Amino acid sequence: MHDRAASPVGPYAGGPPAAALVVPPHELERFRGREIARAGVIAVVIVWRVVLALLAWIVAPRGRRIADAASDGVVDAFEILGPTFVKVGQLIASSSGVFPAPLANAALRCLDDVPPVDTRQARAVVEADLGHPIDALFASFDDVPLAAASVAQVHACTLHDGREVVLKVQRPGIFGRMLVDLRTAFWGARLLERFEFFRVANATAIIRDLHAATMTELNSAVEAARQETIRDNLWQFGDNKGVTAPEVLWDYCGPHVICMERMTGIPLDRFDEIAHHDTRMLIRRGVKVWIESVLLHGPFHGDVHAGNLWVLGDGRLAMLDFGIVGELPPQWRTILREMFHATLFDGDFRKMAAGIRALGYTADVEASDEKIGLDVAAALTPVLTQDLGELRLSDLIMALIAIGKQWGVASPEELVLFGKQLGYFERYATQLAPGWVLGQDLFLFRNVFPDDVAARVAQTGLELPE
Protein backbone atom coordinates (compact mmCIF):
# COMPACT_ATOMS: atom_id res chain seq x y z
CA MET A 1 0.00 0.00 0.00
CA HIS A 2 1.33 3.40 -0.99
CA ASP A 3 1.94 5.77 1.91
CA ARG A 4 -0.19 8.78 1.10
CA ALA A 5 1.70 10.91 3.61
CA ALA A 6 4.84 10.41 1.53
CA SER A 7 3.18 11.52 -1.72
CA PRO A 8 4.37 14.88 -3.03
CA VAL A 9 1.83 17.70 -3.08
CA GLY A 10 1.46 20.95 -4.95
CA PRO A 11 1.86 24.57 -3.83
CA TYR A 12 -1.74 24.92 -2.60
CA ALA A 13 -1.68 21.93 -0.22
CA GLY A 14 -4.20 22.62 2.55
CA GLY A 15 -5.68 25.56 0.65
CA PRO A 16 -4.39 28.44 -1.47
CA PRO A 17 -2.48 31.39 0.02
CA ALA A 18 -4.34 34.69 0.09
CA ALA A 19 -2.14 36.11 -2.66
CA ALA A 20 -3.25 33.38 -5.06
CA LEU A 21 -6.87 34.56 -4.78
CA VAL A 22 -6.08 38.11 -5.93
CA VAL A 23 -6.90 38.86 -9.56
CA PRO A 24 -4.54 41.68 -10.59
CA PRO A 25 -6.00 44.39 -12.85
CA HIS A 26 -5.13 44.24 -16.53
CA GLU A 27 -5.80 47.31 -18.64
CA LEU A 28 -8.68 46.74 -21.07
CA GLU A 29 -8.73 50.03 -22.97
CA ARG A 30 -5.23 49.65 -24.35
CA PHE A 31 -5.20 49.52 -28.16
CA ARG A 32 -1.66 49.44 -29.48
CA GLY A 33 0.43 47.45 -31.89
CA ARG A 34 -0.64 43.92 -30.94
CA GLU A 35 -4.32 44.86 -30.78
CA ILE A 36 -4.21 46.72 -34.10
CA ALA A 37 -2.55 43.74 -35.74
CA ARG A 38 -5.08 41.39 -34.18
CA ALA A 39 -8.00 43.53 -35.41
CA GLY A 40 -6.61 43.21 -38.91
CA VAL A 41 -6.31 39.44 -38.58
CA ILE A 42 -9.88 39.16 -37.25
CA ALA A 43 -11.29 41.17 -40.14
CA VAL A 44 -9.34 39.22 -42.76
CA VAL A 45 -10.22 35.80 -41.32
CA ILE A 46 -13.95 36.56 -41.02
CA VAL A 47 -14.21 38.02 -44.53
CA TRP A 48 -12.10 35.19 -45.98
CA ARG A 49 -14.16 32.41 -44.41
CA VAL A 50 -17.50 34.02 -45.28
CA VAL A 51 -16.44 34.53 -48.90
CA LEU A 52 -15.27 30.91 -49.15
CA ALA A 53 -18.56 29.69 -47.67
CA LEU A 54 -20.58 31.79 -50.11
CA LEU A 55 -18.54 30.59 -53.09
CA ALA A 56 -19.12 26.99 -52.02
CA TRP A 57 -22.84 27.73 -51.72
CA ILE A 58 -22.95 29.21 -55.23
CA VAL A 59 -21.29 26.08 -56.65
CA ALA A 60 -23.43 23.62 -54.67
CA PRO A 61 -26.31 25.20 -52.71
CA ARG A 62 -27.72 21.77 -51.71
CA GLY A 63 -31.03 23.33 -50.72
CA ARG A 64 -29.47 25.64 -48.14
CA ARG A 65 -30.16 29.35 -47.82
CA ILE A 66 -27.48 31.95 -48.35
CA ALA A 67 -27.83 32.98 -44.67
CA ASP A 68 -26.95 29.43 -43.60
CA ALA A 69 -23.82 29.47 -45.76
CA ALA A 70 -22.70 32.87 -44.48
CA SER A 71 -23.31 31.80 -40.88
CA ASP A 72 -21.20 28.69 -41.38
CA GLY A 73 -18.43 30.93 -42.66
CA VAL A 74 -18.62 33.15 -39.59
CA VAL A 75 -18.39 30.14 -37.26
CA ASP A 76 -15.50 28.73 -39.31
CA ALA A 77 -13.73 32.01 -38.63
CA PHE A 78 -14.52 31.79 -34.90
CA GLU A 79 -12.88 28.37 -34.72
CA ILE A 80 -9.78 29.63 -36.52
CA LEU A 81 -9.51 32.76 -34.38
CA GLY A 82 -9.39 30.74 -31.17
CA PRO A 83 -10.69 30.62 -27.59
CA THR A 84 -12.20 34.09 -27.21
CA PHE A 85 -14.23 33.71 -30.38
CA VAL A 86 -15.23 30.15 -29.55
CA LYS A 87 -16.70 31.64 -26.36
CA VAL A 88 -18.56 34.18 -28.47
CA GLY A 89 -19.93 31.28 -30.53
CA GLN A 90 -21.01 29.51 -27.36
CA LEU A 91 -22.85 32.64 -26.24
CA ILE A 92 -24.64 32.84 -29.59
CA ALA A 93 -25.55 29.14 -29.55
CA SER A 94 -26.90 29.27 -26.00
CA SER A 95 -28.96 32.43 -26.61
CA SER A 96 -30.68 31.36 -29.80
CA GLY A 97 -33.67 33.62 -29.34
CA VAL A 98 -31.46 36.69 -29.40
CA PHE A 99 -29.43 36.01 -32.54
CA PRO A 100 -30.57 35.14 -36.07
CA ALA A 101 -31.52 31.47 -36.29
CA PRO A 102 -28.98 30.56 -39.03
CA LEU A 103 -26.11 31.97 -36.97
CA ALA A 104 -27.33 30.38 -33.72
CA ASN A 105 -27.65 26.99 -35.43
CA ALA A 106 -24.20 27.23 -37.00
CA ALA A 107 -22.69 28.25 -33.64
CA LEU A 108 -23.83 24.98 -32.05
CA ARG A 109 -20.50 23.61 -33.27
CA CYS A 110 -18.77 25.82 -30.70
CA LEU A 111 -20.41 23.77 -27.92
CA ASP A 112 -18.50 20.66 -29.02
CA ASP A 113 -15.06 19.76 -27.75
CA VAL A 114 -12.19 21.55 -29.45
CA PRO A 115 -8.94 19.78 -30.40
CA PRO A 116 -6.84 19.17 -27.26
CA VAL A 117 -3.36 20.53 -26.78
CA ASP A 118 -0.43 18.18 -27.23
CA THR A 119 0.00 15.69 -24.38
CA ARG A 120 3.52 16.87 -23.67
CA GLN A 121 2.29 20.45 -23.27
CA ALA A 122 -0.49 19.41 -20.89
CA ARG A 123 1.93 17.36 -18.80
CA ALA A 124 4.38 20.26 -18.75
CA VAL A 125 1.70 22.61 -17.36
CA VAL A 126 0.83 20.13 -14.58
CA GLU A 127 4.43 19.47 -13.58
CA ALA A 128 5.38 23.17 -13.67
CA ASP A 129 2.34 24.08 -11.56
CA LEU A 130 2.63 21.32 -8.97
CA GLY A 131 6.42 21.11 -8.88
CA HIS A 132 6.73 17.33 -9.22
CA PRO A 133 6.78 14.71 -11.98
CA ILE A 134 3.39 13.34 -13.03
CA ASP A 135 4.31 9.79 -11.95
CA ALA A 136 5.23 10.97 -8.45
CA LEU A 137 1.95 12.83 -8.05
CA PHE A 138 -0.45 10.27 -9.50
CA ALA A 139 -0.72 6.52 -9.76
CA SER A 140 -2.12 7.01 -13.27
CA PHE A 141 -2.62 9.93 -15.65
CA ASP A 142 -4.69 9.50 -18.81
CA ASP A 143 -2.98 11.36 -21.65
CA VAL A 144 -6.22 11.39 -23.66
CA PRO A 145 -8.40 14.14 -22.16
CA LEU A 146 -11.99 13.41 -21.19
CA ALA A 147 -12.97 16.78 -22.66
CA ALA A 148 -11.22 19.74 -24.25
CA ALA A 149 -12.66 23.26 -24.21
CA SER A 150 -11.41 26.61 -25.38
CA VAL A 151 -9.66 27.51 -22.11
CA ALA A 152 -8.78 24.17 -20.51
CA GLN A 153 -9.01 20.41 -20.86
CA VAL A 154 -9.79 17.68 -18.36
CA HIS A 155 -7.69 14.59 -17.70
CA ALA A 156 -8.64 11.54 -15.64
CA CYS A 157 -6.17 10.54 -12.92
CA THR A 158 -5.87 8.16 -10.00
CA LEU A 159 -4.23 9.18 -6.74
CA HIS A 160 -1.80 6.88 -5.02
CA ASP A 161 -4.45 6.13 -2.38
CA GLY A 162 -6.81 4.86 -5.10
CA ARG A 163 -9.17 7.82 -5.37
CA GLU A 164 -10.31 8.70 -8.89
CA VAL A 165 -9.96 12.38 -9.71
CA VAL A 166 -9.86 14.72 -12.69
CA LEU A 167 -7.44 17.52 -13.46
CA LYS A 168 -8.62 20.67 -15.22
CA VAL A 169 -5.53 21.96 -17.02
CA GLN A 170 -5.35 25.37 -18.67
CA ARG A 171 -4.07 25.63 -22.23
CA PRO A 172 -0.54 27.08 -22.27
CA GLY A 173 -0.36 30.75 -23.27
CA ILE A 174 -4.12 31.20 -23.14
CA PHE A 175 -4.02 34.26 -20.88
CA GLY A 176 -2.11 36.54 -23.24
CA ARG A 177 -4.09 35.54 -26.30
CA MET A 178 -7.46 36.17 -24.67
CA LEU A 179 -6.37 39.50 -23.18
CA VAL A 180 -5.42 40.85 -26.62
CA ASP A 181 -8.71 39.59 -28.09
CA LEU A 182 -10.73 41.26 -25.33
CA ARG A 183 -8.94 44.57 -25.84
CA THR A 184 -9.69 44.34 -29.55
CA ALA A 185 -13.34 43.50 -28.83
CA PHE A 186 -13.61 46.50 -26.51
CA TRP A 187 -12.38 48.76 -29.32
CA GLY A 188 -14.97 47.24 -31.64
CA ALA A 189 -17.72 47.71 -29.04
CA ARG A 190 -16.87 51.40 -28.75
CA LEU A 191 -17.36 51.77 -32.49
CA LEU A 192 -20.68 49.88 -32.36
CA GLU A 193 -22.01 52.17 -29.64
CA ARG A 194 -22.42 54.84 -32.28
CA PHE A 195 -25.63 52.95 -33.04
CA GLU A 196 -28.48 53.41 -30.55
CA PHE A 197 -29.17 49.71 -29.94
CA PHE A 198 -25.59 49.02 -28.88
CA ARG A 199 -25.44 52.22 -26.84
CA VAL A 200 -28.55 51.30 -24.86
CA ALA A 201 -27.41 47.70 -24.57
CA ASN A 202 -24.12 49.12 -23.25
CA ALA A 203 -21.85 47.02 -25.45
CA THR A 204 -18.66 48.30 -23.83
CA ALA A 205 -19.97 47.39 -20.37
CA ILE A 206 -20.67 43.87 -21.62
CA ILE A 207 -17.06 43.59 -22.79
CA ARG A 208 -15.88 44.99 -19.45
CA ASP A 209 -17.89 42.32 -17.66
CA LEU A 210 -16.56 39.62 -19.99
CA HIS A 211 -13.02 40.89 -19.39
CA ALA A 212 -13.46 40.79 -15.61
CA ALA A 213 -15.03 37.32 -15.78
CA THR A 214 -12.28 36.01 -18.08
CA MET A 215 -9.43 37.35 -15.96
CA THR A 216 -11.04 35.65 -12.97
CA GLU A 217 -11.75 32.44 -14.88
CA LEU A 218 -8.08 32.18 -15.85
CA ASN A 219 -7.10 32.19 -12.16
CA SER A 220 -7.54 28.53 -11.24
CA ALA A 221 -7.21 29.18 -7.51
CA VAL A 222 -10.16 31.57 -7.61
CA GLU A 223 -12.26 29.12 -9.63
CA ALA A 224 -11.50 26.26 -7.24
CA ALA A 225 -12.24 28.43 -4.19
CA ARG A 226 -15.60 29.48 -5.63
CA GLN A 227 -16.42 25.86 -6.44
CA GLU A 228 -15.68 24.90 -2.84
CA THR A 229 -17.80 27.79 -1.51
CA ILE A 230 -20.81 26.98 -3.68
CA ARG A 231 -20.49 23.27 -2.84
CA ASP A 232 -20.50 24.06 0.90
CA ASN A 233 -23.49 26.39 0.48
CA LEU A 234 -25.56 23.66 -1.17
CA TRP A 235 -26.18 21.95 2.15
CA GLN A 236 -26.33 24.98 4.44
CA PHE A 237 -30.03 24.39 5.14
CA GLY A 238 -29.68 20.61 5.36
CA ASP A 239 -32.28 19.86 2.68
CA ASN A 240 -30.50 19.80 -0.69
CA LYS A 241 -29.04 16.31 -0.54
CA GLY A 242 -30.23 15.62 -4.08
CA VAL A 243 -27.72 18.10 -5.53
CA THR A 244 -23.94 18.02 -5.32
CA ALA A 245 -20.69 19.35 -6.81
CA PRO A 246 -17.19 17.83 -6.97
CA GLU A 247 -14.93 18.18 -3.96
CA VAL A 248 -11.78 20.22 -4.60
CA LEU A 249 -8.53 18.46 -3.64
CA TRP A 250 -6.21 21.35 -2.85
CA ASP A 251 -3.11 19.17 -2.44
CA TYR A 252 -3.02 18.77 -6.22
CA CYS A 253 -4.07 22.28 -7.31
CA GLY A 254 -1.92 25.07 -8.69
CA PRO A 255 -2.16 28.40 -10.55
CA HIS A 256 -3.26 26.67 -13.77
CA VAL A 257 -4.48 23.28 -12.50
CA ILE A 258 -7.56 22.23 -10.50
CA CYS A 259 -7.87 18.74 -9.03
CA MET A 260 -11.32 17.49 -8.01
CA GLU A 261 -13.16 14.28 -7.36
CA ARG A 262 -14.31 12.49 -10.48
CA MET A 263 -18.04 12.21 -11.10
CA THR A 264 -19.73 10.20 -13.83
CA GLY A 265 -23.18 10.89 -15.15
CA ILE A 266 -25.37 11.98 -18.04
CA PRO A 267 -25.86 15.61 -19.19
CA LEU A 268 -29.26 16.97 -18.24
CA ASP A 269 -30.34 17.48 -21.86
CA ARG A 270 -30.09 13.80 -22.81
CA PHE A 271 -33.75 13.49 -22.08
CA ASP A 272 -34.28 9.92 -23.27
CA GLU A 273 -31.36 8.62 -21.21
CA ILE A 274 -32.56 10.17 -17.95
CA ALA A 275 -36.27 9.45 -18.46
CA HIS A 276 -36.22 6.70 -15.80
CA HIS A 277 -35.49 9.34 -13.13
CA ASP A 278 -38.08 11.69 -11.64
CA THR A 279 -37.20 14.42 -14.09
CA ARG A 280 -39.61 16.97 -12.64
CA MET A 281 -37.86 16.72 -9.27
CA LEU A 282 -34.45 16.89 -10.94
CA ILE A 283 -35.16 20.28 -12.47
CA ARG A 284 -36.96 21.55 -9.36
CA ARG A 285 -34.03 20.61 -7.12
CA GLY A 286 -31.55 22.18 -9.51
CA VAL A 287 -33.43 25.47 -9.76
CA LYS A 288 -34.01 25.50 -5.99
CA VAL A 289 -30.30 25.42 -5.12
CA TRP A 290 -29.54 27.92 -7.88
CA ILE A 291 -32.22 30.34 -6.65
CA GLU A 292 -30.87 30.03 -3.10
CA SER A 293 -27.34 30.75 -4.28
CA VAL A 294 -28.51 33.86 -6.17
CA LEU A 295 -30.77 35.27 -3.47
CA LEU A 296 -29.20 34.11 -0.20
CA HIS A 297 -25.58 33.04 -0.52
CA GLY A 298 -24.16 35.40 -3.13
CA PRO A 299 -21.94 33.37 -5.50
CA PHE A 300 -23.95 31.41 -8.08
CA HIS A 301 -23.15 29.19 -11.05
CA GLY A 302 -23.12 31.49 -14.05
CA ASP A 303 -23.10 28.92 -16.86
CA VAL A 304 -25.76 26.26 -16.28
CA HIS A 305 -25.81 24.75 -19.76
CA ALA A 306 -26.44 21.01 -19.86
CA GLY A 307 -22.76 20.12 -20.12
CA ASN A 308 -22.37 21.54 -16.61
CA LEU A 309 -25.43 19.78 -15.12
CA TRP A 310 -25.19 15.99 -14.91
CA VAL A 311 -27.53 13.36 -13.56
CA LEU A 312 -25.45 10.88 -11.56
CA GLY A 313 -26.16 7.18 -11.36
CA ASP A 314 -27.71 7.53 -7.89
CA GLY A 315 -30.18 10.16 -9.14
CA ARG A 316 -28.44 13.23 -7.74
CA LEU A 317 -27.92 16.31 -9.88
CA ALA A 318 -24.29 17.43 -10.08
CA MET A 319 -23.17 20.98 -10.87
CA LEU A 320 -19.85 21.06 -12.73
CA ASP A 321 -17.34 23.60 -14.08
CA PHE A 322 -17.29 26.80 -12.04
CA GLY A 323 -15.26 28.83 -14.51
CA ILE A 324 -18.09 31.38 -14.67
CA VAL A 325 -19.53 32.39 -11.31
CA GLY A 326 -21.69 35.45 -10.75
CA GLU A 327 -22.48 37.36 -7.60
CA LEU A 328 -25.15 40.03 -7.48
CA PRO A 329 -24.56 43.11 -5.33
CA PRO A 330 -26.57 42.98 -2.10
CA GLN A 331 -28.97 45.65 -3.40
CA TRP A 332 -29.88 43.57 -6.45
CA ARG A 333 -30.34 40.45 -4.33
CA THR A 334 -32.83 42.42 -2.22
CA ILE A 335 -34.64 43.67 -5.33
CA LEU A 336 -34.96 40.15 -6.74
CA ARG A 337 -36.18 38.79 -3.41
CA GLU A 338 -38.86 41.48 -3.39
CA MET A 339 -39.78 40.55 -6.96
CA PHE A 340 -40.19 36.88 -6.12
CA HIS A 341 -42.08 37.70 -2.93
CA ALA A 342 -44.51 39.91 -4.84
CA THR A 343 -45.03 37.23 -7.48
CA LEU A 344 -45.59 34.47 -4.92
CA PHE A 345 -47.51 36.18 -2.16
CA ASP A 346 -48.85 39.73 -2.32
CA GLY A 347 -48.35 41.24 -5.81
CA ASP A 348 -46.79 44.38 -4.28
CA PHE A 349 -43.89 45.48 -6.49
CA ARG A 350 -43.44 48.89 -4.81
CA LYS A 351 -40.68 47.65 -2.51
CA MET A 352 -38.80 46.45 -5.56
CA ALA A 353 -39.15 49.91 -7.12
CA ALA A 354 -37.78 51.58 -4.00
CA GLY A 355 -34.69 49.41 -4.25
CA ILE A 356 -34.19 50.37 -7.89
CA ARG A 357 -34.47 54.04 -6.99
CA ALA A 358 -31.80 53.55 -4.33
CA LEU A 359 -29.41 52.28 -7.00
CA GLY A 360 -29.87 55.49 -8.97
CA TYR A 361 -31.18 53.84 -12.13
CA THR A 362 -34.33 56.00 -12.12
CA ALA A 363 -33.04 59.20 -10.58
CA ASP A 364 -34.40 61.29 -13.45
CA VAL A 365 -37.60 59.31 -13.99
CA GLU A 366 -40.82 61.06 -12.99
CA ALA A 367 -42.91 58.06 -12.00
CA SER A 368 -44.25 56.56 -8.81
CA ASP A 369 -42.69 53.55 -7.14
CA GLU A 370 -45.78 51.60 -8.15
CA LYS A 371 -45.33 52.53 -11.84
CA ILE A 372 -41.59 51.74 -11.82
CA GLY A 373 -42.20 48.46 -10.04
CA LEU A 374 -44.84 47.45 -12.55
CA ASP A 375 -42.55 48.36 -15.47
CA VAL A 376 -39.80 46.09 -14.22
CA ALA A 377 -42.20 43.34 -13.21
CA ALA A 378 -43.72 43.40 -16.69
CA ALA A 379 -40.31 42.52 -18.12
CA LEU A 380 -39.54 39.72 -15.69
CA THR A 381 -42.88 38.27 -14.67
CA PRO A 382 -43.28 36.17 -17.87
CA VAL A 383 -40.33 34.08 -16.69
CA LEU A 384 -41.95 33.51 -13.34
CA THR A 385 -45.62 33.05 -14.08
CA GLN A 386 -45.82 31.19 -17.39
CA ASP A 387 -44.94 27.72 -18.50
CA LEU A 388 -41.21 28.11 -19.17
CA GLY A 389 -41.68 26.27 -22.44
CA GLU A 390 -43.58 29.30 -23.77
CA LEU A 391 -40.85 31.81 -22.93
CA ARG A 392 -38.31 33.12 -25.41
CA LEU A 393 -35.13 34.42 -23.82
CA SER A 394 -35.06 37.15 -26.46
CA ASP A 395 -38.39 38.46 -25.11
CA LEU A 396 -36.85 38.90 -21.67
CA ILE A 397 -33.64 40.56 -22.84
CA MET A 398 -35.39 42.86 -25.30
CA ALA A 399 -37.85 43.88 -22.59
CA LEU A 400 -34.95 44.81 -20.32
CA ILE A 401 -33.32 46.82 -23.09
CA ALA A 402 -36.65 48.55 -23.76
CA ILE A 403 -36.90 49.57 -20.11
CA GLY A 404 -33.36 50.93 -20.25
CA LYS A 405 -34.25 52.92 -23.35
CA GLN A 406 -37.41 54.23 -21.69
CA TRP A 407 -35.43 55.46 -18.69
CA GLY A 408 -32.41 56.60 -20.70
CA VAL A 409 -30.04 54.26 -18.85
CA ALA A 410 -28.10 51.14 -19.78
CA SER A 411 -29.77 47.79 -19.28
CA PRO A 412 -29.03 46.32 -15.84
CA GLU A 413 -26.48 43.65 -16.70
CA GLU A 414 -27.15 41.80 -13.44
CA LEU A 415 -30.70 41.07 -14.51
CA VAL A 416 -29.62 40.07 -18.00
CA LEU A 417 -27.24 37.52 -16.48
CA PHE A 418 -30.06 36.33 -14.23
CA GLY A 419 -32.36 35.97 -17.22
CA LYS A 420 -29.77 34.15 -19.29
CA GLN A 421 -29.42 31.39 -16.72
CA LEU A 422 -33.20 31.10 -16.45
CA GLY A 423 -33.15 30.74 -20.22
CA TYR A 424 -31.12 27.56 -19.85
CA PHE A 425 -33.56 26.20 -17.30
CA GLU A 426 -36.47 27.01 -19.62
CA ARG A 427 -35.12 24.59 -22.20
CA TYR A 428 -34.76 21.76 -19.72
CA ALA A 429 -38.16 22.40 -18.13
CA THR A 430 -39.95 22.10 -21.47
CA GLN A 431 -38.88 18.45 -21.65
CA LEU A 432 -38.43 17.51 -18.00
CA ALA A 433 -41.41 19.24 -16.37
CA PRO A 434 -44.06 20.37 -18.87
CA GLY A 435 -46.44 22.91 -17.37
CA TRP A 436 -44.20 23.63 -14.40
CA VAL A 437 -44.40 27.29 -13.27
CA LEU A 438 -41.15 28.34 -11.65
CA GLY A 439 -42.39 31.50 -9.99
CA GLN A 440 -45.33 29.74 -8.29
CA ASP A 441 -43.44 26.74 -6.89
CA LEU A 442 -43.25 27.20 -3.11
CA PHE A 443 -40.73 24.35 -2.88
CA LEU A 444 -38.08 26.52 -4.54
CA PHE A 445 -38.47 29.27 -1.93
CA ARG A 446 -38.84 27.35 1.32
CA ASN A 447 -35.43 28.63 2.50
CA VAL A 448 -35.78 32.09 0.94
CA PHE A 449 -39.14 32.90 2.58
CA PRO A 450 -39.46 30.23 5.30
CA ASP A 451 -42.22 31.92 7.31
CA ASP A 452 -44.35 32.88 4.32
CA VAL A 453 -44.00 29.45 2.73
CA ALA A 454 -44.87 27.72 6.00
CA ALA A 455 -47.97 29.91 6.40
CA ARG A 456 -49.11 29.23 2.83
CA VAL A 457 -48.57 25.48 3.24
CA ALA A 458 -50.56 25.49 6.49
CA GLN A 459 -53.32 27.51 4.84
CA THR A 460 -53.65 25.38 1.73
CA GLY A 461 -52.65 21.95 3.02
CA LEU A 462 -50.09 21.68 0.22
CA GLU A 463 -47.37 19.06 0.76
CA LEU A 464 -43.86 20.05 -0.29
CA PRO A 465 -41.26 17.44 -1.29
CA GLU A 466 -38.65 16.50 1.26
From TrEMBL:
UniProt GO MF annotations: kinase activity
ABC1 atypical kinase-like domain ranges (all copies): 111-353
InterPro entries in the cross-refs: ABC1_dom, Kinase-like_dom_sf, UbiB_kinase
Transmembrane segments: 39-60
Pfam families in alphabetical order: ABC1
Domain of life: Bacteria
Entry keywords, A to Z: Kinase, Membrane, Transferase, Transmembrane, Transmembrane helix
Name under which the protein is recorded: AarF/ABC1/UbiB kinase family protein
Organism: Rhodococcus rhodnii
